[in-house]
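Re: the multi-chain job from yesterday

Posting the exact lines I submitted so nobody has to dig through the queue logs.
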Amino acid sequence: MPIVECDAVNKIYQQGRVEVAALQDINLHIPEGAFIALAGPSGSGKTTLLNLIGGLDTATSGTIRVVGKSMAKLTQTQLAQLRLSQVGFVFQSYNLIPVLSAQENVEFVMLLQGIPAAERTGRARSILDTVGLKDKYKRRPAELSGGQQQRVAVARAIVANPAIVLADEPTANLDSKTGQGLLELMQQMNTERNVTFIFATHDQMVMQYAERVVYLKDGRIKTDTLKQHRDKVEPK
Amino acid sequence: MNMHVQIGWRNIWRNPKRTAVILTAIIIGVWSMIFLSGLMRGIADQMVRNGISNLTGHLQLHPHHYRRDPSVDHRISDAERLAAVLRQNLPAGAVWSRRVRVNAVAGNARHSSGVTLVGIDPAKEAQLSFVSSAITRGRYLRSGDNRGIIVGKALLAKYETRLGRKLVLMSQDATGEISSRAFRITGVFQTELKATEKQFVFVNLTAVQKMLQIDSAISEIAVLLPSHQQADAVAGQLRQALAEHKIDVSTWQDLLPLVKATIKIYDSFIFLWFLVVFIAMGFGIVNTTLMAVFERIREFGLLKALGMRPGWIMRMVLTESLFLLMLGLLAGNLLGMLSIYALAETGIDLSAFAAGLEFVGMGRIIFPVVQIRDVVGANLVVVVLGLAVSAYPAYKAAHFTPVQALTHT
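And the result, structure tokens for all chains:
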């Protein structure tokens, strides 16, 4: 069963008296454990689609089901609970809580989940070790480089064992070497933990790492490519 | 430490200057609430103490109609029976004294004017009113000294007389005739209030009884209780016990209506002051919290994306406000108490306004008095209303939609 199902999804924004269609008739099914990129130029609707899948925004019409739950039927509190238990986010910037250390940022989601302090600390340190930040537990975000900050964000996104990680332009502010390291890390998490990764990106390197690239333009899916088979999959 | 608490604490120090400004406002507000209420309570307390020691006592017993017409016609003839009732009903530690108190005219070769003539039992009176301790020249009355009189310093000056000189007193006696008697000034008393020095003259109880031809009758009994808070309860008990004696029992509140009214007015002033201070402080708190919320809109979007519920975000913002309020309260209380402690010995000298102060029964030096209910009230006002006005910014923070917040620039 797909972990994400989008059927006939439309998103229309009202800008004054003008209606702007950000997404039109999106049909997309993503299986569990996928490593998929939503690509396209600015304004193509990739971030909007990511936000709809993450329950940060609501679709104007159509159905979105995430881990079997219909997003339109959930209240704000239920959406928050779904994000907390099933979805991890990595954003382009403003990713970390500035007053917390790296370890505390990673612990934060577990704190919201009600996990006891001792277990939080152990899991946070373990995941920070995995992302290569063994000696940076106590550093605040301002004391970390951009790449290190994104690593902390990835650690926070996966520490609570979510089903899906949604990453919006995670490499946009990083140099290519750091970006590559981050992608390898996420690929490793995908392989080892079977976490589904969905990227919104226009970075070619991300697309190279992705096993499937969904290309959007003007709010519509133009192509949906499964790279392992190198065959073009037409949108539904 | 709980991480919610840690986040709240660290958040308030993100902008130390802004935090310092609002903390200063809260500290000054709390200090002014505690210090000014302490001063007002000090004034009221002094008025009560002055009134009570100024012959009023905590309770007074009079014959019916005496308070309406304080003349020798209204007197208690069976004072001994009354004394027996008092001995049965007054709590341990209470003291009481018999008096004759009538209006009289005091005169010498240079001056004459109306005074209140008070006949006292010197030994008993020394236990409950100011007279014996206020003697600054000469000596206090002695038992059996039926020619001695004690007058106030201001009266002495007004009559241009001195110790050892004669003063003639005239008053209506029991037969309705004017009776007069000469006394020799044996002592001079001084009080905070010049009006008191001019109004009262004190002689031995037996001398007045003789002068007014009333045998052993008296016009009042003054009672001093261990605490002024017992006044109402003991007065009620005495009223029951004396129901058949045609005796009026009055508490100090009945006898000092101006003081009672002034205390009520001060209560209202303190309430208004708390309100005014809080309104000024409340705008500062709302402004600071709103600024702190609006500059962190993206962060609230991130927190929501991470799965934080609106209620948790509200709690986080309110925790920050609570820290500001508690810090301000701590410093404000400390400063208020230090200010009051610093003035506990010396008080505040208001001699420049002494004439006006005397009119309302106040002394020249005000000693602040801390009442726990004022301190608790000031702290509650700041915490409860402070959190109430912070609820609006907290609600705003909790109800940004995540997308709106994350795309905020």
